[in-house]
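Notes from hallway chat w/ T.B., transcribed later so I don't forget. T.B. wanted the structure written out for a chain they're using in a teaching module, and asked if we could keep both sequence and structure tokens in one place. Agreed to drop them here.
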Amino acid sequence: MAIEGYGTKLQYKVGEVWTDIGGIVGVTGPDAEVDDIEISDNDSPERWVEFLPGMIKAGTVGLKLHYDKTETAAVYGLLGVKNKDFKVAFSDGSSWTFVGYLKQLGHEAPHDDAVTQDATFKVSGKPVFDDGAA
């Protein structure tokens, strides 16, 4: 069943409390990817390159939000802070929880549209999916 993106939140943990990052326009990721291990040799059938799956990288979580100076100060304070708990929470109660850090924070101020911020969070280790069916 499809759900709408409206209501999706990115949160970070302060003590035992999940804190929302406000003004979210869109969230992407986590975008896991498996490394390739090439195992080809001179005996590979018909010269075809062969692979095995390697280490798994959890990738990044991307965030686009409307600029707000108060929110910018809070998000900027997360820049480079290691081993922070984050959660992407969807409107149907499901979520991705991960440990990571804010890797990049930028702004865009077009002359004919709203000022926005783009943030990239690096995921460290395995993200955990919760289907919300407690």
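Follow-up for T.B.: The helical segments are 69-76. Might be a good example for the class.
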